[in-house]
Design goal:
Blueprint lengths: L11 H13 L3 H12 L7 H11 L3 H13 L3 E3 L5 E3 L1 H8 L12
Length: about 110
């Protein structure tokens, strides 16, 4: 069975993250932060990315920093050897595919 969900190009990232959230276990604000990063093409958390997040989500710098810390704890954001924070490549792959397929296996 196939269900199609219509989204526009601005809400696709939030839609995919929301659908996959049964596995990701993210809060609504964490989804908004990741969706905003994808929407604006930020895959590394730079000062510019933080500024965009603050403006787009109407949050102060301390709130954004706390959410970034939580996303690191959940492995959605990873700190590289260069000490820069990057979006987890696995998450990037899921979101950029623009399509998710779920298969359910049941134990009888």
């Amino acid at each position: 069975m196939e269900y199609k969900i219509k989204v526009n190009k601005y809400s696709i990232y939030k839609a995919i993250l929301t659908i996959a959230n049964f596995s990701l276990k993210l809060s609504p604000m964490e989804i908004d932060i990741l969706a905003t990063l994808f929407k604006y093409g930020f895959y590394t958390i730079t000062a510019e990315a933080r500024d965009i997040l603050r403006k787009a989500l109407d949050k102060d710098q301390y709130s954004i920093n706390n959410y970034i810390k939580r996303l690191k704890e959940k492995n959605m954001l990873l700190e590289g050897e260069d000490k820069e924070i990057h979006i987890n490549p696995s998450l990037k792959q899921i979101v950029e595919s623009n399509e998710i397929t779920f298969k359910f296996d049941t134990d009888n």
